[in-house]
Structures are given as structure tokens and as C-alpha cells.
Design a protein that fits this description.
Layout (H helix, E strand, L loop, with lengths): L7 E6 L1 H4 L4 E2 L3 E2 L1 H11 L6 E4 L7 H15 L3 E5 L2 H4 L6 H17 L3 E5 L15 H18 L2 E3 L22 H14 L23 H24 L12 E6 L5
Parallel strand pairs: 1-4, 1-5, 5-6, 6-7
Antiparallel strand pairs: 2-3, 4-8
Helix pairs in contact: 2-7, 3-5, 5-6
Length: about 260
């Protein structure tokens, strides 16, 4: 079901939609939402685009801080991607998180927007220490599917495809997508929205890596380096009650024309 051409796209969410891992705060972030806007603009030349996403936000914060401004912008296409920050917290209530997501789905679709969201990959495939989170990911994805189904929201089903956990699609922190990962996420959402020219090509595996496979010793060293470089600082922020989004505002709060980066 394609309802385009579209005139206004608004992205709601956290670091994934903000674009962490695809550029930086000095040169500017691109990310999957920017890339999706470019794909939409290919068949909707007059498209304007706003990105309200802010890193570190929980689903309830996205709802409280971004839904009102998004509705005021009256998008005819929107993406809502949140919940991973909740899933990583010690206290995780899947019903509460899905409730926030469903409230956003309901209000945006009631206003006439075509809405899309995503399911999340199994983090244990990328972070062996995260195996206890697998049940949470499964429950959250099930809740997203059910809530989306009740409101006609398109779902980019990233979870089942092995390529989604290929390390080349992820930044060194393993929490944020790499530029190639953001490109694949944008293609997945375009496919879910049935944009003209989209396909399931994003599900295809990457070419085999050259050279011998990584040894067990090398893998262990890489895990220790990741713990010291990324997990330790992340846990430190949690213990201090800090969020990476503190003091930050949306990078693109008002709709502006989309210009391809190609």
C-alpha cells in the first residue's frame, strides 16, 4: 500500500533516527532517517523533512517530547523508532514501552499519516555478553508487531535477517549502525512503505570477508577492548543517572526541503 507522493516526513525517535554512527557531531550526522527522506524525495520531489529524534531518549520521553511537535507539523509520512534504550535499562517493562509506541502510532495514523517502524535485531549476535537480553528483544518485537498491526503501521522486519547482525553494519560500539547499516535500515523502511523502486535487496548478505576467520584469541581481545572503550563508559553514565541526550535538541526541528547527498 503506497499512499504517496508525500509532502512532509517527520522522524521521531532516539540515536538511531538522529543518525549516530553515520557522520559525527562536527561534520554533521546523516543516518537512516535522512537517508530515508532522500529515498522518499526521489518520487516526492516537493518533500520537506523534519527530524525530532534525540539520542538517549526512552520511549516515554519520545512520546512526551516529540509527539506533540510532530502532530503540529502534520506529516503525511512518519517514522517512530524507539525502545532500545528502555530495553538496555535494568528495569524494563515491555508493556509500558509498547504502550508508549502504540500511543504514537495511534495519534499519528489518526491524523492521516502513513507511519513506519522497525523491529530490533538480537543484540546477543553482536554482543555475546548481551545474551540475557534476547528474551527482551523477542518480547519487544512481538509487542511492536501487534501494536503496528492494530493501527496499519508498516513494519520493517529487520530481526529475522542474518545480515542485520553483520558487524560491518555496526559502529565499533555495536550499539549504533555504521553508514552502511544506516543505509540498509533506510532501505528496509522504504521497502516496508512500498516506495517505488524499493525492494528486499537490503536483506541480502554482504560479500564474504577476505582472509582467514577471526581466531578465538583475537575475539577475546576484541571483547575486552569493547568493554573498556564502550561498555564501561556507558555503565558509568547509567550509574550517575546521566543520558547522552542531556541538553541536546532536535537536529532538524522544522521541515525543510530534502537534498540528496549523492
Amino acid at each position: 500500500m503506497y499512499n504517496g507522493p508525500y509532502t512532509r516526513y517527520v522522524a521521531l525517535g532516539d540515536s538511531q533516527s538522529e543518525g549516530l554512527g553515520d557522520g559525527d557531531d562536527t561534520t554533521g550526522l546523516r543516518g537512516c532517517a535522512d537517508r530515508l527522506a532522500e529515498l522518499i524525495a526521489e518520487t516526492s520531489p516537493g518533500l520537506t523533512y523534519a527530524n525530532l529524534a534525540v539520542r538517549g531518549k526512552l520511549a516515554g520521553q519520545v512520546r512526551a517530547e516529540q509527539l506533540g511537535p510532530a502532530l503540529a507539523l502534520r506529516p503525511d509520512v512518519a517514522t517512530v523508532v524507539a525502545g532500545m534504550n528502555d530495553l538496555l535499562r535494568p528495569r524494563f517493562d515491555v508493556d509500558e514501552v509498547v504502550g508508549h509506541l502504540e500511543a504514537m502510532f495511534a495519534e499519528l495514523t489518526a491524523q492521516g499519516a502513513r507511519v513506519a517502524t522497525v523491529t530490533f535485531p538480537d543484540t546477543a549476535r553482536m554482543i555475546p555478553m548481551a545474551r540475557p537480553l534476547t528474551a527482551r528483544v523477542t518480547a519487544l518485537n512481538a509487542g511492536i508487531r501487534e501494536a503496528a498491526g492494530r493501527h496499519g503501521v508498516a513494519v520493517a522486519e529487520t530481526y529475522p535477517h542474518p545480515v542485520v547482525t553483520d558487524s560491518r553494519l555496526w559502529s565499533p560500539d555495536r550499539l549504533h549502525a555504521s553508514p552502511l547499516g544506516h543505509e540498509r535500515i533506510a532501505a528496509a523502511v522504504a521497502d516496508a512503505l512500498e516506495l517505488p523502486g524499493s525492494s528486499d535487496a537490503w536483506t541480502r548478505p554482504l560479500p564474504a570477508r577476505p582472509g582467514p576467520p577471526r581466531s578465538g584469541a583475537r575475539a577475546a581481545v576484541d571483547e575486552l577492548r569493547w568493554v573498556g572503550s564502550f561498555l564501561g563508559p556507558w555503565l558509568g553514565r547509567r550509574l550517575r543517572g546521566r543520558s547522552s541526550g542531556e541538553g541536546r535538541t532536535a537536529k532538524r526541528p522544522e521541515p525543510t526541503p530534502v537534498h540528496s547527498a549523492a
